[in-house]
Request: fold
Amino acid sequence: MMDVKKAPKANLENKRMTFVLMGVILALGLFYVAFEWTEQEITVYQVENNMEAMFEEEMVENTFREETPPPPPPPAPDVIEELNIVEDDVETENVDIVSEDDQKTVQEIVKVPIAPIEEDPDLVTVFRVVENMPEFPGGAVELMKYLSSNVKYPIIAQENGIQGRVIVQFTVRRDGSIDDVEVVRSADPNLDKEAIRVIKSMPNWKPGEQRGKKVNCKFTVPVVFKLQT
Reply:
């Protein structure tokens, strides 16, 4: 029986060691490449950190110059007061001080006579008859209209049937105002009271005149109270 011979290329047993060595070499190569790659990454990272550190070092902090306070003023020199001591046995001149009270000056009080104030007699004098007698605004006709429109007949007098004429006298001042109103002829207390009220409520009159000057003058007005039947 003949032995079958194998070809050298087909003999894998002989090449096993070769493949093992090649695998080891390939593994070492890959390990070396990986080691070099990791070191390169680490190197780049360190370069970046160094760049940031350099950038931070280039940044200059703002510094403020502190102002030096001025030196304090020199202390004032001590002032030593010199006291002149005078001995008791030294005689000094006596100085007499004379006050105004000691002079007993008599002040004479001179009384200045006050001139009496001359009052215009027309301001205080009340005339009864003058050249131009006082006049109600609009005349006697307007006076009668005013009285008839403003007189309020007292109710108590109406109920008791009291009527009559009340004569009222008053003073027309130089400014036309009415003053010193009084009843010179009475008809009834209630009628008198109403007559005084209506006379005092009259407007200012045209004042009387004497020798071209306005004067105070008396005037008399009858106020008639009459019941209508």
Summary: Residues 12-58 form the longest helix (47 residues). The beta strands are 126-127, 164-172, 178-185, 208-210, 213-225.
